[in-house]
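WARN no homologs supplied; continuing
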Amino acid sequence: MCDVEIARIHRLGDDSAPLKAFCDIIVSGSFLVKGLRVMEGNNGVFVRMPSKAGKDGKWYESVCPLSEDIRKELNDIVCKEFLEET
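OK structure emitted
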């Protein structure tokens, strides 16, 4: 289980756009990760990690969970907080 605290969720006003909010998290009380994105997809909301465009035009995560379990747990924490505020 990861120790994650939501530092900030900044909601966007356009309900028709797939990007719903930006989120910053604090990991283990000592590491701030800025720029997670809460997106609306075909199966509901999900979290995208911060990413940057590479020289090849593709997008690459600049912050990457090292296991699918941690990625899912982080997604669940952020989405739960986002949905509770609506």
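Residues 68-84 form the longest helix (17 residues).
OK
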